[in-house]
Predict the structure.
Amino acid sequence: MEVIIQPDPGSGSVLAAQIISNLLKRKPNAVLGLATGNTPLRLYKELIDMYKRGEIDFSRVTTFNLDEYVGLPCDHPASYNYFMYENFFKHVNIPKNQIHIPDGAVEDIPAFCLAYEQAIKDAGGIDLQLLGIGRDGHIGFNEPVSSLSSRTRIKTLMEQTLKDNETFFEREDHIPHHVITMGIGTVMESGSILLLAFGTGKAHSIAQTVEGPLTAMVPASILQLHPHAKIILDKDAATHLSRAAYYQTTYDGKPDWQKF
């Protein structure tokens, strides 16, 4: 696990975009695992701007999104399908048949989850998985006590997650209580992982993830076992790290080619 502390969310997002850009230059047909929420919005804007400047090409890229609410049609404004098209997909040149997002309206959820796992395998596996992190340390919608070897499946959301998601819905009773999410085992099979966390609200979960014990109570702590996980933080999200100065010195001392 590599911890990279940047001055602010903008700088962190630019760095993340450069890491993805460099991957696509090395492997134009890379498979990207994508995330939703407020955290990656600046990253997606950076990637869109790079595409419009002709610095990056997505035409051979395949994507798999982490999760989706159960019961929401894909055109619902709060669905992650809608989020991805509005904030990224409709602005770049990824062919629609190469975009994969869990279907929250599917009738046979177990069969869909098995098919989603198979589609990832058929694509050759995920080269880079983008993650955010919840205040309780969840990744995707793998809530605390989720199996650390779990696969794509249906999950029930915890009270804190429901509260955090209130802003995306007009009424509290409209928030779905179930989701389809990639499992922790699925995420850990990715070739590399890029987790972004910004703001003091994420500081506690980041400290538990990076410096705490590996435990299902903090699902993101499993990333300690991944050989190629980068954790990009702003200074606020790093405030509870006891070794923040060491992480900063280590990163600053790297040659430029190794920083991306």
In short: Helices lie at 9-26, 41-52, 80-87, 109-122, 159-164, 184-188, 203-211, 244-252. Residues 209 and 221 are 4 Å apart (CA to CA). The domain at 2-252 is CATH 3.40.50.1360 (Rossmann fold).
